[in-house]
Q: What sequence folds into this?
């Protein structure tokens, strides 16, 4: 019974190691190798004391050929995928949509469908097709990529982009929100949501998205969207009655242009942060 329990535990351990090997690289980590060697040692603990199972040589040869053939297939797919994946990276860096689509399509194989950063190759082909105006093709590839990596934020963003191109804003918002739920400070998702809300003249919702972004971000969309949003909030403050501290700041420090609103907002956020730090320091003393 004790031997059976050990064998059962070893079976689960080896199956777990094999499963982990399919998604990560345990052979590159010493700690995993130590566990594997220990399990293999236990598996052969009764060698010499029990009758060994004799496997016919023909079965061993056939098994070896099958394993070798499978390994060659996987290696060939991954070699080809890596080759075209490098072309995809170059085309993406140069924003060449005409090159990125065929390279991404050639990179996809049975045993290779994501790049070294775990981004689906279908993301790149969908991105290229969307830039080229092939909305239907972009949608099909985005769906395939989403099935492979449903929690990848750039894949979720691309799903949103495709739906946005199809004028389906509700679906687009759903995927952008899924991306920002995974990464609350994800600027691309926040800007995308803010743009949709601005299109609906929902300035409160747009500001709630923009407020989550670092006010000193270098993304030019902050300078494009934030000043207009705050200007409209100031103009309609009697209607929405939101953000009283910020509204008071701009009443005392009115802005005359987009740069003024952006500069004022950053100053307001800086003052708010300093006030919070001072309050926490005061509480710590008390």
A:
């Amino acid at each position: 019974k004790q031997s059976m329990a050990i064998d059962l535990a070893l079976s689960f351990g080896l199956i777990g190691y094999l499963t982990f090997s399919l998604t990560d690289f345990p052979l590159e980590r010493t700690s995993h190798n130590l566990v594997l060697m220990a399990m293999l040692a236990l598996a052969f603990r009764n060698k010499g004391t029990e009758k060994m199972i004799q496997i016919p040589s023909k079965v061993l040869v056939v098994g070896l050929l099958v394993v070798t053939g499978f390994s060659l297939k996987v290696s060939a797919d991954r070699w080809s995928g890596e080759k075209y994946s490098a072309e995809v990276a170059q085309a993406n860096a140069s924003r060449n949509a005409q090159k990125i689509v065929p390279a991404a399509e050639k990179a996809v194989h049975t045993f290779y469908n994501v790049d070294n950063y775990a981004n689906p190759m279908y993301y790149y082909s969908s991105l290229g097709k969307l830039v080229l105006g092939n909305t239907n093709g972009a949608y099909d590839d985005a769906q395939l990529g989403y099935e492979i990596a449903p929690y990848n934020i750039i894949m979720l963003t691309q799903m949103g982009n495709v739906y946005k191109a199809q004028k389906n804003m509700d679906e687009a918002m759903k995927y952008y929100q899924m991306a920002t739920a995974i990464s609350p400070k994800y600027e691309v998702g926040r800007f995308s949501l803010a743009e949709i809300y601005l299109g609906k003249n929902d300035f409160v919702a747009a500001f709630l998205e923009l407020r989550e972004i670092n006010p000193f971000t270098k993304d030019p969309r902050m300078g494009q969207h934030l000043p207009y949003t705050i200007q409209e909030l100031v103009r309609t403050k009697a209607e929405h009655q939101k953000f009283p501290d910020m509204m008071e700041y701009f009443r005392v420090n009115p802005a005359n242009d987009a740069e003024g609103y952006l500069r004022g907002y950053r100053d307001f956020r800086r003052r708010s942060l300093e006030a919070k730090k001072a309050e926490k320091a005061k509480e710590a003393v008390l």
The mean pLDDT is 88.
